[in-house]
Amino acid sequence: MAKIIGCIGTSHVPTIGVAYDKGRQNDPAWAPLFEGYKPVAEWLAEKKPDALIFFYNDHATTFFFDMYPTFALGVGERFPVADEGAGLRNLPAIKGNVDLQCHIAESLVNDEFDLAIFQEKPIDHGCASPLPLLWPHEPDWPGAIVPIAINVLQYPLPTALRCYKLGQAVRRAVESYPEDLKVVIVGTGGLSHQIHGERTGFNNEEWDLEFLRQLQFEPEKLTKLTHADFVRLGGAESVEQIMWLAMRGAMPEKIRKLHQNYYLATTTAMTVALYEEGEETPQAAASQQAAHAPA
Asked: Which Gene3D superfamilies does this one have (predicted)?
């Protein structure tokens, strides 16, 4: 049977992809970000998962506001990486696993999640920005992606609780898949940021770190927050944190944090965190978090 072996939360800032493509990994402004992903990439290289299930959002690249689905799942052997205005990226098309994607789609619909299904559509920075920092890609990606897009752009949005339940349903889908596959769940977006309006450039480091604490130990508290709560605490675009809750919902009750990097260098608090099943005390996690807290 397929098994979820861990989960990753990551920002998906488009400038990460631009900096990566321009070889700026060692620039002083970018090095702390790229260094923060190396332990996660090493963990993935060691564990060799067969598939990454990506909860991400499309930024009006494949879907537009005249037809923007609440939840959409990609089914296909390949998905092109979108050109979002900076030119085509030197990345291979994202590889899929049609059998696994179809099984998850069917399982989610039977679990009363009404999905849109897309094929051969381009995938933008919501997935493609962090992906090369996690997986090597020459000459090709080492495994498949199951892309699950969540609407965090056009209201009404799915609630935090609904996204958490989506993650739980994805776990049931994976665990009912008959092939012995190793699967990692990736939740993308956020954390605190706002890129328009009077609060442009807003960040809340205290809330970001508290969100990460609750995500690990008290995710149910986060499911009670409204979209207005997320916007107030972290800025308009921080509502993307509901995609981290989808990731968390796919994990068991107790998880332990293997790595966390928090770097506030642009308008977004760029964050990556890695978790496995297991027990960890809040005190131990707080000690680790303090060691990685922003100066």
From this structure: LigB-like (3.40.830.10)
